Amino acid sequence: MRIGELARETGISISRIRFYEARELLPQAPRTANGYRSYGAEAANALRFVDRAQRLGFSLAEIKGAIPAPNGSTPSLSAIVAALRQKDEEIDRLIQDATAKKQAIAALLEELRCAT
After folding, report:
1. Closest CA relative to residue 53, chosen from 72, 68, 40, 66
2. Angle at 97 between CA 93 and CA 103, to 5 degrees
């Protein structure tokens, strides 16, 4: 399929697909005789993975470390699981920080209410 079809199938814009390609986050698509890139199901799956990982808060560098490299080396499942656990812990810390800030704001509001 061509890039427009890939964009429609995945719901990801053509410009975003090209952005991911430029950063080697998608497998290199072979070109047809007329020079168009031809994407297969593997590209659609990789694109969905990258998009989902980014929406979950992973940086592009972290995502790149979790996908097969252009030279064919692949990360281990344990490395991917470790990265997911690390992101989960990071989110827990962010929640704790946000909760503490919310409590501090509530306390300040209460002080201001009592002062009026």
Report:
1. 66
2. 145
Main-chain dihedrals φ then ψ at residue 31, nearest 5 degrees:
-105, 145
Task: Indicate the CATH number for domain 3-115.
Answer: 1.10.1660.10
Write down the pLDDT at residue 39. Answer: 94
Tokens of 10: 């995945």
Residues 6+ apart with CB under 8 A from 1: 9, 38, 39, 40
CA distance 115 to 110: 9
In 3D, which of 88, 78, 26 has the Cα closest to residue 57?
Answer: 88
The predicted structure's pLDDT at residue 38: 94
pLDDT tens figures, 64-99? 888 876 666 777 888 888 889 999 999 999 999 999
Residue-range domain boundaries for the chain? 3-115
Closest to 46 in 3D by CA, of 84, 83, 10: 10
Compute the distance between CA of residue 51 and CA of residue 9 in angstroms, rounded to an integer: 13
pLDDT of residue 70: 66
